[in-house]
From TrEMBL:
Native source species: Lederbergia galactosidilytica
Pfam families hit by this protein: TauE (PF01925)
InterPro entries: TM_pro_TauE-like, TSUP
GO cellular component: plasma membrane
Protein's recorded name: Probable membrane transporter protein
């Protein structure tokens, strides 16, 4: 394993997660796949993302929209087993290609000022998609990010509700992964070594969060989505 690359991935992904509420899995998972097997990369991502959510949940509690959170959680329950089946039986490169196409198309619509109203059925659907992506490729963020951006959600509400949802989705997904796929020593040793980097990222991310206004936050969101879509498109 390239230790230097591992340090850079975890540190920057932790900063992004803390400052925006959605960035760890989007940034970390694709690059962790360069260093680990798909199972190891996904489980390391799940463990560290869960640690971040646990560390931040008290600070962001006031920003959580609990009604939307409940619908996300309910929807994700249906998506989690679907994602596991995809991970076990579907060709991962083809899955990445499909996810990439969807992310790039929807991001283009957002850039072109396409907007949609937040509704209860859409909340359930987004939760289901996020659950499916969590157990299949370890990336629950894109559906939430696209949805919240399309509804012009305030950055505080986006960050708080997303982190609270991650606390649930990562816990359940990790349990499902270990139970049905298995785990190994590399996953847990690498996660333990990464924890100090995560806490450094938490500290720096909180500072950066205070500097980001709503407009820059939106632009940054689009850049992250474009990066993710393009990376998945070519990483096959």
């Amino acid at each position: 394993m390239d230790i230097f690359l591992f340090v850079i991935i975890i540190l920057f992904a932790s900063i992004l997660q803390t400052s925006t509420g959605f960035g760890f899995s989007i940034l970390a998972t694709p690059f962790l796949l360069l260093l680990f097997t798909p199972m190891e990369a996904i489980q390391i991502n799940l463990i560290l993302s869960l640690m971040i959510s646990c560390a931040l949940i008290r600070k962001i509690r006031k920003d959580i929209d609990f009604q939307i959170l409940k619908r996300f959680v309910t929807g994700s329950v249906a998506g989690l087993p679907i994602g596991l089946l995809i991970f076990l039986f579907v060709d991962i490169p083809r899955l990445k290609l499909g996810v990439s196409a969807i992310i790039l198309l929807l991001t283009l619509l957002l850039i072109l000022k396409f907007r949609l109203a937040q509704t209860k059925p859409r909340d359930f659907l987004v939760g289901g998609l996020s659950g499916t992506l969590t157990t299949s490729i370890g990336m629950p963020g894109p559906p939430l990010l696209l949805y919240f951006s399309g509804t012009d959600t305030e950055k505080e509400k986006l960050r708080g509700t997303t982190l609270a949802f991650y606390l649930f989705i990562y816990s359940i997904s990790l349990f499902i992964q270990v139970l049905f796929v298995g785990t190994n020593q590399t996953v847990w040793i690498s996660s333990i070594w990464a924890l100090p980097l995560v806490f450094i990222g938490l500290f720096l991310g909180q500072i950066i969060y205070r500097w980001i206004n709503q407009r820059y936050f939106q632009i940054f969101t689009y850049l992250i989505l474009l990066f993710t879509g393009i990376y998945l498109l070519f990483d096959r």
